[in-house]
Amino acid sequence: MYMFKYICKRIGLMIVTFTIIFVTCFVLVKLLPINTSVGFGEDTGKIIAQFEARGYFDPIPEQFVRYLKRIILDGDFGIGFQIPSYRGRPVWDVFIEKLPPTILINIYSSLFAVPVGIALGIFAALKKNKWQDHFISTAVMVFISVPSFVYASLLLYTLCFQLGLLPLSFSSFQHIIETYPEKNFVYTPGTFNWHLYFNKEMFVSTLPAVFAMSFGSIAGYARFTRAELTEVLTSEFMLLARTKGLTKAQATTRHALRNAMVPIFPSIIGEFVSVLSGSLVIEKIFQIPGVGGLYLNAINTKDYDFFMMLSGFYLLVGLAAGLVIDLSYGVIDPRIRMGAK
Amino acid sequence: MNTKNLFKKSIAILMVAIMLLSAVACKKDPQGSTGDSDQTGHKDPKNYTYNTYVSVSPSNWNELTYQDNNDTEVMSWIGSSFFIYDFKYDEAGEIIPGEFEMKYSAATKLEDVSAQYVGDTWGVPADGKGYAWKITLREDLKWQNGDPIKAEDFVYTMQEQLNPDFQNYRADSFYTGATTIVNAQAYVKQGQALKAQPASTIYTTYSADLDSKLVFSLAAPSDERPTEVYMRTAMEFPESYDAKAAADYLVANYLGGTAFTADVAATMEGKTFAEIKADATMKAAWDALIGWWQTEPNEELHFFLTDYTYPELTWDKVGMFVGDTEYEIVLVLAKPLNLLKEDGSLSYQAAYNMASLPLVHKATYEACKIAPSEGVDLWTSKYNSSVDTTMSWGAYKLTSFQAGKEFTLERNENWFGYGLEENDGLYQTDKVVYSVIEEWNTAWLEFQAGKIDGIGIDVTIADDYKGSSRAYFTPSDYVGSLQLQSSVEQLKARETEGVNKSILSYTDFRKALSLSINRADYNTKCTTSSLPGFGLFNSMHYYDVENGGAFRNTDEARQVLCNVYGVDASKYASLEEAVDAITGYDLAQARELLTKAYNEALAAGDIKDGDEVVLTFGSSVINETVQRRIDFIDAAWKELAKGTPLEGKIKTEGKEFGDAWSKDFRAGAYDVCLGGWTGAAWDPGYFLLAYLSPDYMYSAAWDTANTQMTFTMKGVGENGADVTETMGLLEWYDCLNGSEGAKYNWSATALEQSKRLQLIAALEEQVLLAYYSVPLQYEFSASLLSYKIDYVTYEYNTFMGYGGTKYMTFNYDDEGWAAEVAAQNNKLDYKN
After folding, report:
1. Residue B822 phi, psi dihedral angles, 5° rounding
2. SS (H, E, C) B615-677
3. pLDDT in tens, B335-380
4. By CB atoms within 10 Å of each CB, which of A21, A89, A278, B235 scores lowest?
5. Is the domain of B207 the same as that of B173?
6. Is A239 part of any domain?
7. Which residue of A has its CA nearest to B191?
8. Of B226, B435, B438, the CB nearest to A284
């Protein structure tokens, strides 16, 4: 019951936090001056007339109420107006069409990085202060220090261009449709189009980006796991376990790892939650039509509808992620009880 | 089931699902790739695909609403032209460089029918020519789906273009540009309520019943009210002149000793004409003011603003309709166009100003309309924003489009052009594939791997690839200039203790900055292949298009450069040689000028001994290219300061200003930027507006209206006499372009181009000598073309470029190219 109360309380706080930030975002973005500049010899009046017809000069509270009504009653998040690539397109349609590639490369990357990173961390902890540990720790430092776009460029040049092992760019839908004519794939603009993503061509084309995104995560997990496990392995209860007759492997897997996972596991969940945000640089380098950069573009171009929809979405995801991560502690370690006195 | 087990099971199911999906994904496809197409080349059975890329995806290629060049990437393939430019050939069948000829394409006939529309209804003057045009269409024009195209389709489209419910972005193309259709503006703005418009633009005649609607104003335009009364416009008051400054100016120069004083003017500000008339003091001031100003009836309106709502207007009042047959379009224009030459053949303007008119497929367009949501009055349309909503009447049709990733176009078999004998052997391209690649480095690898067929040469690889046999160089009318802040008030306002900026207001200091930059070195190190720039115009600016007369190659233009850069032309065999000797770089003179400016500023108290000069170098973003240029200029200015009182004290700091960078610079928010202009390359006289009008110029605080120039226009007076005048630069500009109210009309229609040249050159010289705009580069871009394709010529033609897809030829078909690339191990060498 206390858990239920705790969750209700957190959800209540989430709603309050969401409302405050969402309204603040709306007001602040509407307070920015409207850019009515036009090209050489064009009529400024046409831009002013457009803004006026869109109600951009109305009082902000009036605009906000209208905006909310539109979302709630019609599910209409608005039409892109300023981002050059998406002018005149429903912002929600653009967003959901761009989400799948971002989600996929992040999930693939996590699936690759988590086991490899944890395995390396365990190995380094078990070989503490031996050459294997030093080697892994040095590599970890290198991979953590170098930003992912450097790996991305290196991978693109070596694996994709010089060695020709992987494609240079993420597959387009048209390429998939032409590659698998027997499957009669159809691309529907403004939808997720998940069916176009699960095939060999598309999977292989994600790999360069997946590898580029994984290296940093692998290094992070390895370092974190090594640190936690090293500490746990030197605990007194581990000595007790060994004296009770457990082998080193048994003591490590049954007791040490489980305890070491308490701080690591929430970070894994956190990483899965962050898959929705995308990576601007990686997506640019590998030509992935994902959501990375969409938010930045919305801010730079002052595209109100894109900005508000993305602000709301990421705000909601961020707040939900915080709650999920907090709750996950209790799942991993039954001794931790959120909300209990 | 407890929470722990549920979580474990969920994770396990998720893992299994993802692994299964991955396994399915890895399953080998038994069919393999087919990429075969049933399309064939124009009378060639093989498949030819042109692969190219853009860095920004187009979003809306609707002719009525498109906004930028990304959108025109699609539009250029799916539309056709009434009239086209083509190469001109000599007797041996070789292309004559630089020349062109005009041809009919989607139209078969063009007639000047102005005489039929003379009168008040359409406003065509009795002897007017070029006001009304009849365009006869080919009768075999079709949409990609086979639907016929007739004149009524163009008329329907124009009605939608000007539909006031949509406020389409391109509507102003038909009331602000050269092609101004009668009543187009009135139609699109009907019902629109305008606040505080210049009364003289709303009413043509004054009557007392307007008094309560007219509001007196001498105030400058502002963000809240971006208009000003006609009197201010005519007097060419800059924006920095507020109402008080304007009144002071009038009193000091014209109305001293009359009832019109600055104090009374302040009282009159914002009052209606009725209120002014009712008050004796204001009435007396008004009488003095209008007594000085008025020479023609209705000029009372020049001092007032008024709110206005455009009246309803029916479509039959707009100057576009179907002619006598269903294939004739009639256009009645408010401003004449010279689309035909004296001999009745097409002039260059036919393809420049009337290449086509917007055209939408009626049924598709109607289905794509989106009604406004609650609280919004604007209709929108999704026409031409996806494959399903796109209709082509051009040589190619859109066959796939994935926003932000890729789009393809394929041959439109219903295009009329494929049936024409003159196109035999042309249009070899079957398919065009555009990839969206934001990163140049990625595109570069794709090019070397044979995936795309052309790429611009980045400065980072220029040394290795500029000499490639596959490199070609394209000139541009863009002149990149260093723009120096002109507002001394803003410079002073941003000074802090020990930091000086206002020395930039000294002409000698700005000239020193100019002379300290080695333009040849700058272009070698900071651009791919641009040439050193010295004038406001380059070789792409034509003063006489029909005869290929480039402004920069005239004696008048050459003399300007000699004058500005201090080259004594008499020491050279020709002006051309003298211009060739110009470098724009003279460090010794620059240091002298710097020292002189410093001493003058010190004496005037504008700089203190020991002050540093810190110049903020602004840009929209500071990327690698911009930083390289800032660093070069910074190093040049540090070198300039050596041995002068400012040694070690000139510094630059880079700062990003985003989209508003030019607006911020004009407002005085920072000191230096790199910027220039492109457009109007065939009318340098008009283009000077960019350097002289406060509405456009970077140096917005430079008072070009009151910067006087005494000049003698040779052979323009009566009986070929010379005319000597002293006028403000902007007034000279107005004369050059025959603006309303100008003292002389020396526009292109009133005066032969050779005589206008002298004034264009004189104004260019004045702008250069002010050193607010310091030209650095005449832009040239360098590109590499794939071994797969060839252009018909590599000598750039202003009208035809390199011939485009129409003339493009393929050295390999798709199959052959794939084999060639594979044979080269997917790495093509373009260094040689």
Report:
1. -65, -40
2. EEEEECCCCHHHHHHHHHHHHHHHHHHCCCCCCCCEEEEEEECHHHHHHHHHCCCCCEEEECC
3. 899 999 999 999 999 999 999 999 999 999 999 999 888 778 889 9
4. A21
5. no
6. yes
7. A49
8. B438
| Structure confidence at residue A341 (pLDDT) | 58
pLDDT > 80? residue B197: yes
pLDDT digits (tens, 9 = 90+) for B61-103: 999 999 888 889 999 999 999 999 999 999 999 999 888 999 9
> Does residue A319 lie within any of the structural domains?
no
B814/chain A closest Cα distance in angstroms: 15
Of B292, B309, B326, which residue constitutes the final position of a domain? B309
In which element (H, E) is residue B88 found?
Answer: strand B83-89
Q: How many angstroms separate the CA of residue A130 from the nearest CA in chain B? A: 34
Question: Testing the interface with B: which of A52, A54, A287, A301 to mutate, by most B Cβ within 10 A?
Answer: A287
B316 and B304 in a single domain? The answer is no
* A174 interface with B at CB cutoff 8 Å: yes
Chain A residues with CB under 8 Å of B443 CB are: none
What does the alpha-carbon distance between residue B149 and residue B136 come to, in Å, rounded to a whole number? 12
The pLDDT assigned to B524 comes to: 92
Note whether residue A12 is domain-resident: no
Domain membership flag for residue B605: yes
Residue A276 pLDDT class (50, 70, 90 cuts): low
- Hey, which residues 167-206 in chain B have their CB within 8 Å of chain A? 167, 169, 171-172, 175-177, 189, 192, 194
Tell me what percent of the residues of chain B surpass a pLDDT of 70: 95
CB B663 within 8 A of CB B673: no
Instruction: Count other Cβ atoms within 10 Å, centred on residue B654.
Output: 16
B207 and B117 in one domain?
no
- Set of chain A residues whose Cβ sits within 8 Å of the Cβ of B58: 85
- Give me the pLDDT at residue A40, please: 65
3-state secondary structure of B275: helix
B23 touches chain A (CB under 8 A): no
> How many domains are contained in chain B?
3
- Which residues fall within 8 angstroms of residue A216, CB to CB, at 6 or more apart? A143, A144, A146, A147, A148, A151
The answer on B342 and B224 residing in a single domain is no
In a shared domain, residues B601 and B572: yes
Average pLDDT estimate for B426-443? 95
Indicate yes or no: CB of B402 within 8 angstroms of CB of A172. Answer: yes
- Give A-chain residues touching B27 at CB under 8 angstroms: 200
With an 8 Å Cβ cutoff, are B377 and A88 in contact?
no
Say if CB B34 and CB B814 are below 8 A apart. Answer: no
* Alpha carbon distances (Å) from B33 to A166, B433, B640, B812, B823: 16, 17, 63, 20, 20
Whether the CB of B120 is below 8 Å from some CB of chain A: the reply is no
Entry pTM: 0.83
Record: contact B445-A157, CB cut-off 8 A: yes
A336 within some domain? no
Total domains present in chain A = 1
Give ipTM to 2 decimals: 0.88
Same structural domain, B255 and B324? no
Residue-range definition of the domain harbouring residue B214: 193-309
Residue A223 sits in a domain of what CATH number? 1.10.3720.10
Whether residues B376 and A88 touch (CB distance < 8 A) is answered with: no
